[in-house]
Every structure is written in structure tokens, then in C-alpha cells.
Specification:
Chain A is an alpha/beta fold. Chain A has helices at residues 46-53, 76-83, 101-112, 117-130, 146-158, 176-191, 203-209, 227-232, 237-248; strands at 8-17, 20-30, 35-39, 61-66, 69-70, 86-89, 164-168, 195-199, 212-217, 220-225. Chain A is built from nine helices and ten strands. Chain A is globular. In chain A, 48% of the residues are buried.
Chain lengths: 249, 242
């Protein structure tokens, strides 16, 4: 694969829920190392788009390629294999309540990659240290704050050594004072060159970290470009209106 | 009044016959353990068959649902009579199945285990299913997003949580199963109830049956308390959840 080839390519991705058109023929490319922030009003289809990338939500039409491989054409088992390279972090954390922090990361590497448990354990602990939770390795999720849970969730996704990370409004369920600790981890990841697709309402994060901002509304990409342009000087009326509402408070 | 006490609570009589009643109850305990274990396994298999995805598995799901509905709707006593009274005559079956004699237990013991497993497997399948359905969708999505397949997700994420959630109903059903082992007495298995009944018809005294009942309570009462404790624990946990 040539170095500037897209790591992720979406071609005409369409998603209908019954008669409701949530995504209308979305085209999007993400090159390695890029951080793409997707913004837009609720119901605009941004989360659905993210979930179509790793096929948690099967697409109605269109194609999704990861590193040249079409995940949309795959059988379920093949899609499972491609998904190993796509990490995902959720709004509601979705940590496994029956696993301690240190058991959470190694679970997938051990079961699907067949990694030895000592090795997976060591890597899991290193990742928890990286997200600043080396003192919480023995805790169950119910004993962790929202911010801590979300950082464990990031470590869990990283344990599979993904080539791209999807973040689905990962700070929306957090108390305001806990948002920063999660965003800081994401900033570090971005600085280390992780390819990231981030659905977010954190405009500050998008401005500072994104290589590109995508504004979505009603299932289409309305506008995309560098953060300074899209956030600072938007061309489209809809973008202006949305930013006016978001940045007003 | 004395007559009543003498008929039901004749302690010297109980003491005198405690040996046979205890021996009978020991068979009850073993029967409920074997049947309980098999029912748990069979119920899990049924629940997994019922949750198989996709179109090709539709007939499997339909058959499983039919099985569960039918055997929950038939009295266990009939199943016991169908298995215990007739299995031995189905000559097409292998001998080990027609006249099972594993681990030194008589064949009526195994007929009881089979009949209880057939019925309680159906009950337990429903309990498993309730637990599986109660695991939030986000858990499955998180697991799948890590590249874990359907089976790995079921095995490592869904089932461990499901079983924790349904521990109280499992214990309830297990209590019912233990009591229902008494139905196997119709096959002549000398378990607690059978022994008590034989004493009753020989001596015209029901104290042997009462002793059997007391022995049952020795097991079922702590189980009931355990269920309560478990439910309370889960409620606390639920209240703390975000």
C-alpha cells in the first residue's frame, strides 16, 4: 500500500432505519495519522456513521474499506478479523462489569489473538499506566469514576493494537470536571500518531487536535476542511447556524 | 391432641427409624445433585440453541422453543412414568440407555435423573434466556468491536454477566427441583418420601414423613435465605450503577 493511501475509505455509505434515511451516500477518506473530528447536531447521523465503519451497524448500501480491504463485503467471521484493527470507545463506556481493570484489556488479545496471558497481562498493565490508572488495576468498573472508566475503555481498545480508533462522543456522559482527563489521553494518542475518527461536541478539542473537521447534518457531509476553516470561517449556512448555537453558551 | 402429636410428631418413632429415613434422604440429595447438574447443562444447551442467529438456524430455534414450551407444560410425574416405566422396553435403544447403571446407582435412579433433566432443562433454559436478554446491548457491541466473534462474546462477556443476574431464579428453580425428586418415588426408588410412606403404611404413623419433611427444610430454608441475600446484593449494586 502506498504511504499516502487512505487507511479508511467510505464510498457512498448509506444507512436506512426502515424508511428513515440516517446516512445518505457518505464519502470519506482518512489517511494514516490523521485525526478527523465529526461534528454536527444530534440526529445528524455522526454516531451511525462511526458504527458503520466497523459494521456494528450493517450498511444499507455503499462500501467501507480498511487498508484496501472491503469490510462491507465480508462474511461475519472475516469482519470479526478486520474489526481487530479498529478500536472503538463508546459514550457509555461499556466496560465489562465482571472484569477488573487489569483483566479488561487482555480479554480480547487472549481470546481472539491467542496471546499468552502473561504477555497480555503485562501489556494491559502498561496501557493502564499510560492512561494514568496504574493505581486502579484491581478495581471493578463500579468502583471507578466515569472518567476513569472511559480511560480503562481506551486502554481496552488499545490492547488490540488497532490501526485506527473510533471515538463515539466519549465525553458526553461525563461530569464536566472529568472531561479533561479523557481528552488529555486522546490528545496524547493523537500526538503519538494514532489515526482517529472522533465524533465529538468538544469544539476546543476539535480545534486543537483535528487535522480535519467534518460537519454533518441530516445524513450528509455538509462541509469539511481544516479546523481553522470549518470552525473559524465556515462557508455553509448550516455550519454557521450550528456553530452559533454550540459556541453561544 | 395427643393423637395428633402421636400421629405426626412421634419423636421416639422418628429416632427409631431415623436410619432408613436418613438413608432415603441421602438418595434424595444425590438425585437432586445429579439431576440439577444435568439440567443446568441441558438448559444451557437449549438456551444457546434458541439464541442461534441467522436464517439457517430458524428450524433449530423453532424446535427448541417447541421443546421448552411442551416440557414446561407437561407434569413431571408423567415424564417420570414415561421414562421409568417404558424406556427399558424400547429395544432399539442401546442397553446402557435402556437400563442405565452408572456409578452403582440402580436404573430407577437414572430414570429419575433423565426425567427431571428433560423437564427442568426446559425451565433452566428460560432462566438462562432471561439472563442473556438482560445483558445490555452495549456490552455485546463493546465485545464485538474488539474483534471478538459471536461465540467468544457469548462465552466471555454475555454468559458470565447473565448467570450472575439470574442466580436467584436459578436457586428458586433448584429448590423446586429438589422437592420434585420426591416424584421419582413412584418408580420405587427408596428416597426420603418413599421410605416415609412405607413406614406410614407399615406402622400407621406419619412421623417418618414428617422427619423427611424436616430434612428437606434443612436444605430448602437456607436456599431461600440465600436467594434473598443475593437479590438484596444485586439491588444495592443496581442502585450504585451509573
Amino acid at each position: 500500500m502506498p504511504p499516502d493511501a487512505p487507511l479508511l475509505r467510505l464510498e457512498g455509505v448509506t444507512k436506512n432505519f426502515g424508511k428513515l434515511e440516517v446516512l445518505r451516500s457518505i464519502d470519506l477518506e482518512v489517511t494514516p495519522g490523521e485525526v478527523v473530528c465529526i461534528i454536527g447536531p444530534s440526529g445528524s447521523g455522526k454516531s451511525t456513521l462511526l458504527r458503520c465503519v466497523n459494521q456494528l451497524e450493517p450498511t444499507t448500501a455503499g462500501k467501507v474499506y480498511l487498508e484496501g480491504e472491503e469490510i462491507t463485503a465480508c462474511k461475519e467471521r472475516e469482519a470479526d478479523v478486520i474489526r481487530r484493527r479498529i478500536g472503538m470507545v463508546f459514550q457509555q463506556f461499556n466496560l465489562f462489569p465482571h472484569k477488573r481493570a487489569r483483566e479488561t484489556g487482555p480479554l480480547a488479545p487472549e481470546t481472539v489473538l491467542g496471546r499468552r496471558s502473561a504477555e497480555a497481562d503485562e501489556r494491559g498493565r502498561a496501557l493502564l499506566e499510560r492512561v494514568g490508572l496504574s493505581d486502579k488495576v484491581d478495581e471493578y468498573p463500579e468502583r471507578l469514576s466515569g472518567g476513569q472508566q472511559q480511560r480503562v475503555a481506551i486502554a481496552r481498545a488499545l490492547a488490540m493494537d488497532p490501526h485506527v480508533m473510533l471515538f463515539d462522543e466519549v465525553t458526553s456522559a461525563l461530569d464536566p470536571e472529568l472531561v479533561k482527563e479523557v481528552l488529555d489521553v486522546m490528545r496524547e494518542l493523537a500526538a503519538e500518531g494514532m489515526t482517529m475518527l472522533v465524533v465529538t461536541h468538544e469544539m476546543g478539542f476539535a480545534r486543537d487536535v483535528a487535522s480535519r473537521v467534518v460537519f454533518m447534518d441530516e445524513g450528509v457531509i455538509v462541509e469539511e476542511g481544516p479546523p481553522a476553516e470549518v470552525l473559524g470561517n465556515p462557508r455553509e449556512e448550516r455550519t454557521k447556524r450550528f456553530l452559533g448555537l454550540v459556541l453561544a453558551h | 391432641m395427643d393423637v395428633v402429636v402421636k400421629q405426626y410428631f412421634d419423636f421416639p418413632f422418628m429416632w427409631e427409624h431415623s436410619g432408613v429415613v436418613l438413608a432415603g434422604f441421602w438418595i434424595t440429595v444425590q438425585l437432586s445433585l445429579w439431576a440439577g447438574a444435568f439440567s443446568l447443562i441441558w438448559g444451557l444447551i437449549l438456551a444457546l440453541l434458541r439464541s442461534l442467529p441467522g436464517r439457517w438456524a430458524k428450524p433449530v430455534r423453532a424446535i427448541t422453543i417447541a421443546y421448552i414450551d411442551v416440557f414446561r407444560g407437561i407434569p413431571l410425574l408423567i415424564i417420570i412414568l414415561l421414562v421409568g416405566g417404558s424406556l427399558a422396553f424400547i429395544s432399539v435403544l442401546p442397553r446402557w440407555l435402556r437400563i442405565p447403571e452408572f456409578f452403582g446407582y440402580p436404573e430407577v435412579f437414572w430414570y429419575g435423573v433423565m426425567a427431571i433433566t428433560i423437564t427442568y432443562g426446559a425451565y433452566f433454559a428460560e432462566v438462562y434466556r432471561a439472563g442473556i436478554d438482560a445483558v445490555p446491548r452495549g456490552q455485546i457491541e463493546a465485545s464485538r468491536s474488539l474483534g471478538m466473534g459471536r461465540w467468544a462474546t457469548m462465552r466471555f462477556v454475555t454468559l458470565p454477566q447473565a448467570i450472575r443476574k439470574v442466580l436467584p431464579p436459578f436457586l428458586n428453580d433448584y429448590t423446586a427441583l429438589m422437592k420434585d425428586t420426591s416424584l421419582v418415588s413412584v418408580l420405587g426408588l427408596p428416597e426420603a418420601v418413599r421410605v416415609g410412606r412405607e413406614l406410614q403404611s407399615e406402622y400407621f404413623n406419619a412421623s417418618g414423613l414428617i422427619l423427611g419433611a424436616l430434612l428437606f427444610l434443612l436444605f430448602t430454608l437456607p436456599l431461600a435465605r440465600l436467594v434473598d441475600r443475593q437479590i438484596k446484593k444485586q439491588n444495592i449494586r443496581f442502585q450504585r450503577a451509573p
